[in-house]
Amino acid sequence: MQTKLIAAAKQGQFDNVFTSEVIKGQKDWEVAFSDVINCANRFSFTKSFWYIGDFFTSKIVKVGGSFETESPLSKTDWEGMAPCDIGKLFHPDDLPKMEAFLVFMATFLSKKTAKQRSNIKFSKLFRMQNKNKSFTWRLMEFPEIYYENNMPRYVFCKISNYEHMLSNSKCTMYVLDTNTKKETLYYCENSEVVLQPFVYDKQLSDREIQVIKLLCKGLLSKEIAEILKISKNTVENHKQNIFVKTKTKKITDLVMFANNYLNLN
């Protein structure tokens, strides 16, 4: 899976995710998601709710679970609402990122075959209003997306409360791709940064990414220190941490890692 630069989403791009021409021979959402609806509340270890969005009518057709306590909206409010309007419940700082994540997800999946899509899972960590309109951390997952003629028809979205599980969190998207022999988990903390590998004990920091890119250009620690305006010792510390996190031992191994996982442009 190639790494991607996730640009901030324009309003038109975000709106277009939920609008398209209606395809004849539609499959009813109750048939498409009967199994996942029956299982939705069985495996959650925290309060959660779910909804089904119809891409072609741009409406939420069904909501279930603990939506009355986990959101300030009633069933009447939820059902019939446009999926893009859910953003009004998001924390203002997280909304632009979530919009960019959604556009990336829709574009990424549209280029995959049905078999490939079944092996790719997206999840997003963000803040959302609860019943009292206080912002709490949530995990948004998409157990099922039903396609017709290679176009998304229905999406099953589950939102779980993760407030008690987290501290010092950031709005983040995770992408799990099991199409390759080696499962790859990427993460992205910002709407304008590269998806970074999340396959080690600790994530690579933005500074470590910068150091890796400069090392791959053949620069020495002293030169990197001058460019980043940090000390040579700090660069050396970053290098040691990078080798541990990437499980590499020398620069040639690190270059191979960077070519596989990082955007070196």
Overall description:
By secondary structure, this protein is α+β, with helices and mostly antiparallel strands. The chain folds into two domains: 11-192, PAS domain (Beta-Lactamase); 206-261, Winged helix-like DNA-binding domain superfamily/Winged helix DNA-binding domain (Arc Repressor Mutant, subunit A). The protein is 34% helix and 23% strand. The chain has helices at 11-16, 29-32, 34-39, 67-70, 75-78, 95-110, 114-117, 206-216, 221-228, 232-246, 251-261; strands at 48-54, 59-65, 120-129, 135-148, 151-161, 172-177, 184-188, 196-197. It has an eight-stranded antiparallel beta sheet with strand order 2-1-5-4-3-6-7-8. A hairpin with a 5-residue loop joins strand 3 and strand 4.
CATH homologous superfamily label of the largest domain: PAS domain
CATH class type of the largest domain: Alpha Beta
- Radius of gyration based on Cα positions: 21 Å
CATH topology of the largest domain: Beta-Lactamase
Main beta sheet: 8 strands, antiparallel
CATH architecture of the largest domain: 2-Layer Sandwich
Give the structural class. Answer: alpha+beta
Please work out how many helical segments DSSP would assign: 11
- What is the helix/strand order? HHHEEHHHHEEEEEEHHHH
Estimated share of beta-strand residues: 15-25%
* Spatial gap, N to C terminus: 17 Å
Let me know the number of strands. Answer: 8
Number of domains: 2
Mean pLDDT: 81
Tell me the helix content: 25-40%
Main sheet: which strands, in order across?
2-1-5-4-3-6-7-8
Runs in which pLDDT lies below 50 for 5 or more consecutive residues are 21-25
Shape: elongated
